[in-house]
């Protein structure tokens, strides 16, 4: 007989593509985890995983088993949630894919949800906008907080959350007179630390610099804002971040936070939810939390 735990192990392995990480996620030792996968293969009399020194991929039969495993687990979880919801409870796990620029708002959402539904656990995973769309399609994410640009309304429900605006965070030693505003062309003259070129935020910033006819002096790239802000506070380079992020983190005497003008740039960040969602009760709670505004 197929054990639900075996199905959970297979789904975790497909998501992490790593035996040790999947075992840890499932609360098992690696030998016990491997035994679970072999037990599933023996019950179904198929080879599910192509094995080597490390995880390679699922076999074609394994992909079919994975699709059914996800469906079975999601339907079971849906049943449990609907029963609890009928008693006024919202509980379970919400996996939210978030672009780095929206992490501060995602944290506020998680706090808001936890305050209303103590049985709901929110997991925030930062990812690129493209990875979020793919993750929602692959069911790795239940929903996303990402740029509204490029999201198909045929596949996703789109709920606007806020308009992203940008500020320059510059070491006080690099700018004179603590200006309240600066043009993008002036910002391009400073040494900059920005997100990696493939990320949507970086593409937006590069496009603005291109439109105003300047080439910025980028000396550092990273896949998150923590490194860029540390570099700014150490006095090495300025960075450009969403205004909402600095409002949450706060500034100090080491840096100046300056509004960027000419042009004023705004990009819509939205909550995106698959139209064929299974965690309806949880996602409705998330949507309600978003509609309370920021």
Assign an overall shape: elongated
Supply Rg.
Answer: 23 Å
Q: How are helices and strands ordered from N to C?
A: HHHEEHEHEHEEEEHEHEHEHEEH
Euclidean distance between termini CA atoms: 49 Å
Mean pLDDT: 87
Strand order of the largest sheet: 4-3-5-13-6
Architecture of the largest domain, CATH level 2?
A: 3-Layer(aba) Sandwich
Q: What is the CATH first-level class name of the largest domain?
A: Alpha Beta
Contiguous uncertain segments of 5+ residues: none
- What is the CATH fold-level name of the largest domain? D-Maltodextrin-Binding Protein, domain 2
> Considering DSSP H and I runs of 4 or more, what fraction of the residues is helical?
40-55%
* Number of continuous helical runs: 11
User: Which band does the percent of strand residues land in?
Assistant: 25-35%
Class by helix and strand content?
alpha/beta
In total, the number of domains comes to 3
> Sheet with the most strands?
5 strands, mixed
Task: Say how many strands there are.
Answer: 13
List descriptors:
four-stranded mixed beta sheet, D-Maltodextrin-Binding Protein, domain 2, alpha/beta, 294 residues, Arc Repressor Mutant, subunit A, 3 domains, five-stranded mixed beta sheet
Describe the structure.
It contains eleven helices and 13 strands. The chain has 294 residues and is an alpha/beta fold. It folds into three domains: 4-80, Winged helix-like DNA-binding domain superfamily/Winged helix DNA-binding domain (Arc Repressor Mutant, subunit A), CATH 1.10.10.10; 90-163 and 268-291, Periplasmic binding protein-like II (D-Maltodextrin-Binding Protein, domain 2); 166-265, D-Maltodextrin-Binding Protein, domain 2 (3-Layer(aba) Sandwich). It has a five-stranded mixed sheet, with helices on both faces. Strands 8-12-7-11 form a four-stranded mixed sheet. Strands 1-2 form a two-stranded antiparallel sheet. Helix 1 (4-16) crosses helix 3 (30-44) and helix 1 (4-16) packs across helix 4 (60-86). The longest helix is centred in the N-terminal third of the chain and has 27 residues, at 60-86. The mean pLDDT is 87.
